[in-house]
Amino acid sequence: MRKLLPGIFAFCLLAVSLSAQDDPAKAYKAATRALSAYNLDPANNKAKLQEAKTNIDIAINGAVEKMDPKVWNSRAEVYNALVGQEVNILYIDQSHILPAESESYATEAVQSARKAIELADKPFLKKAALTSLSETGRYFSILGNQRLQTSDYASAYKPMKYFLDIDQELRAAGETPLMENATDVANQEFVTAFCAYSAGDMPVAKSLFSKLVEAGHEEPLAYSLYFNILIQDKKEAEALAVLDKAKVKFPGNTEILIAEINYFLKENRLDELTDKLKQAIEKEPGNLSLYTTLGSVYDQLFQRELETRNEEKSTQYFDEALKYFNQALEKDPKSTDAMYSIGALYYNKAAAISKELKILEEDISKEGLKKYNVKKTEMYSYFDKALPFFEKVESMNPNDQNTLIALKEIFAKKDEIELSNEFKRRLEVVTGGGSNADSYYKE
């Protein structure tokens, strides 16, 4: 008989386990017992927390339990404890990265607390749910800020949004909010809006930025990003009004100036751009992209004047473009953008001359042939000036399509067919989805 006892005992354990799985009410009690055991000694009772999670998820599927605020409150506590477990490690080890599950656990906790508030028929039950909600809000803040520290703004968005929303819910319920004052709230709204913008949630970003701009927020980026959103929404008049407000509030601010520059670029208002870019360079003399952008604007103006055959203006704009591209290269001798831009500038000059050649070749007189040869020599001289810059870019990036096209075309114009075919082959590798293993030109 004694030999049967262990088997009978095991059967009883199995029966109890099955009973808890089949009975949401028993699962709820098992969850609360396991959570209590964990809270008494978290270090040695980690398994109890997982047990609590398993049982509370069974309990919440019962018809009666689904409508019981106590069950939802317990679920919020269990899921908060799961997040808290990781946060406690972070307090000891600041290098600890909260796992992805922490965000989903916190989301489950806040949803459970909100359900408990919805169902609460007694003040103490609502109070317990709000307490859990507050705890989850603090966890979301920790999650979000950890991601902000690594500039992962898109993934910081959800935690930051939850933190902001929970603070508002607590205020509405007359509870102690997560943030102390209006300044803290405004700053959190800005951070959340910026993260929403980074994550591509433009409706939320727009709503928050609109509120901040209306209130006269002290962060210029709120105005420039709101301006961008309004432009994307094709609300140009509203956008320009925001920009005007920002220019008065933050005179000479680079963020606002760059937003305006980007708008003028989009609208192809080149003549107005040069002065604005020069202002931006004065504010940020180390910003390489401002020099290359200004050079590109002058390049476009140069090409525009070439089309109208205004030689004086085109030469003036060519010289200005070259000046700013060279300034960019002086600041960063390894800037492929600046190198390519100088090469392209010389290439465009040569291409313009090649158009003149087509007209001149119709004149077969002695004087006509003389003019043709002079222009042809001039064209080759600009191709020769462009070549070293394209060669340098290719040596640093053998898979840049525009550079390969330029090299192919230049060598074709110079009747260097073998070289032209080499770069044609390399271009086909890239356009076919492959990549060249090494550069033709070595640094």
What topology does this entry show?
Elements: H1 5-22, H2 24-40, H3 46-59, H4 69-92, H5 100-119, H6 123-149, H7 153-172, H8 182-199, H9 202-214, H10 220-232, H11 236-249, H12 254-266, H13 270-283, H14 288-307, H15 311-331, H16 336-360, H17 366-396, H18 401-413, H19 417-431
Give your account of this protein's structure.
The chain is mostly helical and about 450 residues long. The protein has a domain at about 180-265: Serine Threonine Protein Phosphatase 5, Tetratricopeptide repeat. The chain has helices at about 5-20, 25-40, 45-60, 70-90, 100-120, 125-150, 155-170, 180-200, 200-215, 220-230, 235-250, 255-265, 270-285, 290-305, 310-330, 335-360, 365-395, 400-415, 415-430. α7 (about 155-170) runs antiparallel to α8, α9 crosses α10 and α13 (about 270-285) runs antiparallel to α14 (about 290-305). It is elongated and about 105 Å long. The model is unreliable at about 1-20 (pLDDT under 50).
- Let me know the CATH homologous superfamily of the domain at 180-267: Tetratricopeptide repeat domain
Query: What is the share of helical residues?
Result: over 70%
Q: What structural class do helix, strand and pairing data support?
A: mainly alpha
CATH architecture of the domain at 180-267: Alpha Horseshoe
What radius of gyration results from the CA coordinates?
34 Å
Alpha plus pi helix count: 19
Q: Could you tell me how far the N terminus lies from the C terminus, measured between alpha carbons in angstroms?
A: 89 Å
Beta percentage is under 5%
Which whole number gives the mean pLDDT? Answer: 90
Q: How many strand elements?
A: 0
Biggest beta sheet attributes? none
Contiguous low-pLDDT stretches (5 residues minimum) are 1-19
Name of the top-level CATH class of the domain at 180-267 = Mainly Alpha
Principal-axis shape equals elongated
